[in-house]
Design goal:
With 350 residues, the chain is of the alpha/beta class. The chain is built from 14 helices and 13 strands. Helices cover 40% and strands 23% of the residues. Helix 12 links the parallel strand 10 and strand 11. It is found in: Cytoplasm.
């Protein structure tokens, strides 16, 4: 990369190809594609993030609404009629479409991969797509849903799918459908899953804005990569607050989200970015960070940033990637104890 020289408003040096990280969200299978559809309808595709929906089911892809790239994978393998719940079919479909997927993900720096574990396409194709992105050189963050307990065989397929995904993804964030059932048992089903999708949306949007937009206390892609690589068990969360108690509200929103199940007393690091209105003080942002990390060890690696947005008024928003935490609910559950999961990727639990 050539040396960069700044003179007034002029930038001398060939930095055009390196200045802005390329961020994509790829949804795999029915659940992953539905997630991308919700992200598109929420406007994420208009904020510098490329949205891609992939599936073996042509009808499902055609019915998706919103601004996104749609990729039918494994047309010869499945005839466009789905994987039938068989992960090996989903895997074969992704391998068949390897070149097409590589072309659409060309140059990606940060890939968010979203899928449901336990079915055919998401479980089988997601690890292959993660591998393609890693071969390109991307940081791969997988956000996947884990099946309901009553789904029996799907939970076992889900465990195996996560094990394969960890071989290639830098980070695996798991959203447990059973926590969703506890949180919203009587909510209309579409609204309930949309609530879970908001974790993905707020995290992806928040991280993207953190990397792509300048801040008062700046965070860059290198900071993000340092935190997300080899972070052990971690989670991504967002909290908001307003009024006299906004500092406490924002911090507790990160730590005590109803869909999160985690213990941070053993956390060994965090990336925290605070966004506030024009009247946000340095004390506001540092206090939020202190509350979020107060139970971390003294030698924890904390990376901190802050940005002011004119339209926020008195609101504070905290986006946190907490690494090296303990999440006992699924990891200590019977299904996970029966099978040890090995690989290069790190599990982040939601």
């Amino acid at each position: 990369m050539e040396e960069e020289i700044f003179k007034g408003q002029e930038i001398i040096g060939d930095i055009g190809a390196y200045a802005v990280p390329k961020i994509m969200v790829v949804g795999v299978g029915g659940a992953g594609s539905n997630n991308v559809e919700r992200l598109a309808n929420a406007g994420l595709g208009n904020e510098g993030v490329k949205l891609i929906a992939t599936n073996t089911d042509k009808v499902h892809l055609m019915n998706l609404k919103g601004n996104m790239t749609r990729i039918l994978i494994g047309a010869k393998t499945t005839g466009g009629m789905g994987a039938g719940g068989f992960p090996n079919i989903g895997e074969a479909a992704a391998i068949e479409s390897n070149q097409l997927l590589s072309q659409q993900m060309e140059g990606v720096d940060l890939l968010f991969l979203t899928a449901g574990m336990g079915g055919g396409t998401g479980t089988g194709a997601a690890p292959i797509i993660a591998k393609i992105a890693k071969d390109i050189g991307a940081l791969v963050v997988a956000i996947v849903t884990f099946p309901f307990k009553l789904e029996r065989a799907r939970t076992q397929k889900g465990i195996k799918g996560i094990a394969k995904l960890r071989e290639y993804a830098d980070t695996v964030v798991i959203i447990d459908n059973n926590k969703l059932l506890e949180f919203a048992p009587n909510m209309p089903i579409n609204d309930a899953f949309a609530t879970a999708d908001m974790i993905t949306f707020t995290s992806v949007r928040g991280i993207s804005k953190t990397v792509l937009e300048p801040s008062l206390i700046n965070l860059d892609f290198a900071d993000l990569k340092a935190i997300m690589t080899n972070g052990d068990i971690s989670t991504i969360s967002v909290g908001r607050g307003a009024g006299p108690d906004k500092i406490k509200q924002a911090a507790e929103g990160v730590l005590y989200h109803p869909l999160l199940d985690m213990e941070i007393s053993k956390g060994r690091g965090a990336l925290i970015h605070i966004t506030g209105g024009p009247n946000t003080s340095l004390n506001d942002v540092t206090k939020v960070g202190e509350l979020i990390t107060k139970n971390f060890p003294h030698d924890a690696d904390i990376v901190f940033g802050a940005r002011v947005e004119q339209g926020r008024g008195d609101e504070l928003e905290a986006i946190a990637i907490l690494v090296g935490i303990s999440a006992p609910a699924i990891l200590k559950g019977q299904s996970f104890q029966k099978q040890k999961i090995y690989g290069k990727g790190d599990i982040r639990m939601i």
